[in-house]
Amino acid sequence: MTFWNRPLPLLTLALVLFTSSPAGAFETPAMFRASEILPQPLLAGPYHRVREYAEADGYLIHFTVDSDFGTYACVGVSELRRHVDEIEAIAELVKVSKSDLFAEGLRKSVESPIAAVKNIASDPRGAIKQVPHSVGHFFGKVGSGIGNAARKAGEKKSGESPDPEKVGRGLGNAIKSVAGFEKAKLECAKQLGIDPYSDNARLQEEVEKVAWAFFAGGLPLKIGVSVAGGATSKILNATEFVGLPDDLYELNSSELDFRDRSTLKSMGASPEKTDALFANPAMIRSVRHQLVDALAALPAPGRLEVLEQIIACDTVWRARFFNDTLQLLHSRHRAAPYKSLGVQGRLAVGVAADGAIEIPAPVDYVVWTEEVAAFATREDIAGYHRRLILQGNLSAETQAQLATAGWEIVRVTR
User: Fold this and answer.
1) What are the structural domain ranges in the chain?
2) Sorting pLDDT into bands at 50, 70 and 90, what band is 79?
């Protein structure tokens, strides 16, 4: 039995190494043993191993993954799953790049070097070096992040021409073939079940290399995907866990951008806010598309207020986390439509038909800290019935304190 379906008393006794506190006092975030809380395929595989000790921050558990392709720091189980899935995909692409068919494709593509297209394609990796922040950012008081994020987003440069000296031989043919090459990249990502716009630099490099060899060589792209049938597929299939929409693979980047702009316009978003969202360097295309789609699927007053918080996301990690919160709200909305949407702290919230405020929490393990207590006892929502839409676990102390403060806990299975 894993962490995610183990009863809380056993979890507390067996896994959590608290610097303990008296009943009712604040708790210290826990340390976990990865081998005791993760399913085996996620813990270790032929190309990766999660380090044994994982520290929590009061909301999420921080894991470190050593792999054949580098070391990954993962904030939360969701990010861990995504990185392990991408490691498996990189391994598959590396195997493909050593095949005879790949070598044949390279020989046929010699007149159009991959560097030509790579210099034209946009670079999704700029935000990968940004340090992710604690979830506490979302549960704290609203600061000046919205204006700053929009301002910084507007400063982003886009559409810059590549350096002609770096493009090299075959540039003309490459330019004409960009659309076809992008389609090949999307097909490659689809066969692997990964995010085609991932900010994983090594993954993008391997996808481009393999897609180019098959595309420019005029060969059909067919990857012998061990990822889809391997031991990790039951828990790590990207399209199942992340809920990647089919149109990420079916539409090219320009078509996807057009669809998102049209969707935002239909919701009443101003051109200025739309431009700010598109210019935000933290918004990789896939996450932005999922956020826009999720917002469109919540047809209730208050959506534009939520959009401002989306624009305020200043790292890729924060954008992903905000997307997780919207997905929780969307799942609740499908069952019982919200009367309206709003923002508490920096979180999107839904107002249910019975007047209750529903606050999404896609977390791993919450302990009772001053920060959590401050949010749980906020005066501006104290007069409402409050529901915490929880994806994860609470310490026994947190559960007791929330109940005392009048919160209802609604658990959502991962």
Assistant:
1) 38-138+164-241, 251-411
2) very high
